[in-house]
Amino acid sequence: MKLIYQVWIMGLILLGSCALHAQVSGEVSGSSSTLEMEAAPRGMLTGEQVSIPVYDFEGLEGLLNRSDDKVYVVNFWATWCKPCVEELPYFEALHTKYATKDVEVVLVSLDFPSRAEKVLIPFVEKRGLKSTVLLLDDPKQNTWIPRVSPSWSGAIPATVIFSRDKREFYEKSFTFKELETAVTSFMN
Questions:
Q1: 33, 73, 163, 165: least surrounded by Cβ within 10 Å?
Q2: Selection from 57, 77, 87 nearest residue 14 by Cα
Q3: Beta-carbon neighbour count of residue 21 at 10 Å?
Q4: Residues 91-108: pLDDT tens digits?
Q5: What is the dihedral of CA 149, 155, 160, 166, to 10 degrees?
Q6: What is the CATH number of domain 2-184?
Q7: By the 8 A CB rule, do 55 and 135 touch?
Q8: What is the reported pTM?
Q9: What span, in angstroms and rounded, lies between the C-alpha atoms of 4 and 1?
């Protein structure tokens, strides 16, 4: 019964992302990120060119509650989500353009953990992603989704942008201009 429920929840996330599209530490190997996480990863996925830390939500939550001098852009996505994949180049461009301006881009994959080595690792390697990539492996979506944002339906793509003084949640796809405008509104 538990497995059926988990599959049902992931189906809702997939359907939500399609409907939404119609409307609108560990340093990662091969990445220029220096993100240090408070909690150690539960595991590590390792490919030829990248290593991706695996966290449960408790391990990820410290990142979502930072209050230092950086602006954090945390995008929840998956390789099977077409609108997520379409907007990834904008997050990468943001990472490149603002890396020296205290902006940290973190791509939180919601890919199925059982397929991560066969799908996620090759995807990240093929695209040469330089932003921090990590895998969230926590089947208790009904618990952690509202902790990310009470307004989050669970659809992806979804992005949290925050700084010490400001926090915004976006359950939508971005263009580069929209993403850059949102991020620059957080910069002093």
A1: 165
A2: 77
A3: 19
A4: 999 999 998 999 999 999
A5: -50
A6: 3.40.30.10
A7: yes
A8: 0.82
A9: 5
Which residue is listed with tokens 């399609």?
18
3 state SS of 55: strand
Taking residue 12's Cβ as centre, other Cβ atoms within 10 Å add up to: 14
Cα–Cα dist 36/145, whole Å: 23
Tell me the C-alpha distance between 24 and 178, whole Å: 12
Helix, strand or coil, per DSSP, at residue 173:
coil
Give residues with Cβ within 8 angstroms of 133, minimum separation 6: 28, 31, 50, 52, 106, 107, 109, 124
Low-confidence stretches of the chain (pLDDT < 50) are 1-33
Among candidate residues 95, 119, 113, the one with its CA nearest the CA of residue 35: 95
Cβ proximity of 88 and 164 under 8 Å: no
Token pair of 142, please? 């009904």
DSSP string, 100-169: GGTEEEEEEE---GGGIIIIIHHHHHHHT--SEEEEE--S-HHHHHHHH-TT--S-SSEEEEE-SS-EEE
User: DSSP string of 63-91?
Assistant: HHT--SSSEEEEEEE-TT-HHHHHHHHHH
What is the Cα–Cα distance from 84 to 155, expressed in whole angstroms? 11
